[in-house]
Design goal:
The protein has no helices and 18 strands. By secondary structure, it is mainly β. The two termini are 34 Å apart.
Length: 263
C-alpha cells in the first residue's frame, strides 16, 4: 500500500503493485485496476483459493474513515482478484451483533477442512480506539465459500491482542500458528510492563481438532517488538521479520529471526 507523505498515519493509503523479473533484485510499478475506491490498510499476504474451478486471490484489508469523518466507518473487508491486476470488493467481515469492534489488520489462512478459510484480526474498541476489547482478544471469522461470505466475527478466548498487529497462518503440515506482542497496549504501563506493552513476541499453535497450545516465547530481549510477519520455507520452518526498538522506544530498527514449530 502507498500513503501520501504528508499524512501523519496510514489511514489514507491505496493499493499499489509491482512485478519483478529477476527474483526480486529490481521491481517495476504496475498500475492496478481498482473497483474498490476507498482508502485501505493491509498488513497481510495474498491468499490463493479456488471457487467454481476458478483461481482467485484474496487480500484482507480494513478502513478507518471514522477517524477523520463522523460519517465514516471502521470496517474489515476482503478484496479479490483473478489476475492480481484488477481488484474488487469481495466481502465484508460482519460485525458482532452485541457490540461493534474495531476489526483490523487481519490475516487469512486455510482452515481445518478443505472448504474453510479463517481470518484472525487485531482488535480495539470501536468508538474509543485507544482502548482494547475487554478482555483484550483477537477476533476471528470463517468462510466456507471461497471468501464470498463470512460468519459474524467472534472473540478468540485463547488469543491475546492488545491493539497490536499479530501474525496468523497455517503451516504446510496443517498446524495453525498465532504470533503476537504480549502485555498491555504499547503506551499503557502495567505490572511487569514499566514501559508499556508490545515487548516480547509470544506464539501459540493449534493442530486440527485440538485447542490452542499454551503460550510459548519466540523473542524476549527486554525491548519493544511488534508487527511480526512470517513466511514458511519448509514444513514448520519459518523466517520472520518484525520491527524492534529499545526498552522504552518502539520501531528503531528491524529484526529477523527463525521459528520452527512441530505438529
Amino acid at each position: 500500500m502507498r500513503c501520501p507523505i504528508a499524512q501523519k498515519n496510514s489511514e489514507e493509503s491505496q493499493l499499489v503493485g509491482a512485478f519483478t523479473a529477476d527474483g526480486g533484485y529490481s521491481w517495476t510499478q504496475v498500475e492496478l485496476a481498482m473497483h474498490y475506491a476507498g482508502p485501505l490498510i493491509t498488513c497481510s499476504t495474498i491468499v490463493t483459493t479456488e471457487t467454481d474451478s476458478t483461481r482467485k486471490f484474496l487480500l484482507p484489508a480494513h478502513r478507518n474513515t471514522l477517524q477523520e469523518d463522523p460519517r465514516g466507518s471502521r470496517d474489515h473487508f476482503v478484496l479479490s482478484s483473478t489476475s492480481l491486476l484488477e481488484w474488487k470488493l469481495e466481502a465484508y467481515i460482519p460485525q458482532p451483533t452485541n457490540a461493534r469492534v474495531f476489526l483490523h489488520e487481519g490475516n487469512i489462512a486455510p482452515g481445518e477442512t478443505p472448504e474453510e478459510l479463517w481470518i484472525v484480526m487485531r482488535t480495539a474498541d470501536y468508538d474509543e480506539t485507544d482502548r482494547t476489547t475487554d478482555p483484550p482478544r483477537a477476533y476471528s471469522s470463517v468462510s466456507r465459500d471461497g471468501g464470498r461470505t463470512w460468519r459474524v466475527a467472534k472473540p478468540e478466548p485463547d488469543l491475546h491482542n492488545a491493539k497490536s498487529k499479530a501474525f496468523f497462518g497455517r503451516s504446510s503440515n496443517g498446524t495453525h500458528i498465532y504470533v503476537y506482542s504480549d502485555g498491555p497496549p504499547q503506551r499503557e504501563k502495567a505490572p511487569g510492563f514499566p514501559n508499556g506493552g508490545r515487548t516480547s513476541l509470544r506464539y501459540k499453535t493449534k493442530i486440527a481438532g485440538d485447542t490452542w497450545s499454551e503460550e510459548k516465547t519466540f523473542y524476549d530481549a527486554g525491548i519493544k517488538n511488534s508487527y511480526p510477519t512470517l513466511i514458511e520455507i519448509a514444513p514448520g520452518d519459518f523466517r520472520c521479520v518484525w520491527d524492534s526498538g529499545t526498552p522504552d522506544t518502539p520501531r528503531t530498527h528491524i529484526h529477523f529471526g527463525k521459528l520452527r514449530i512441530t505438529p
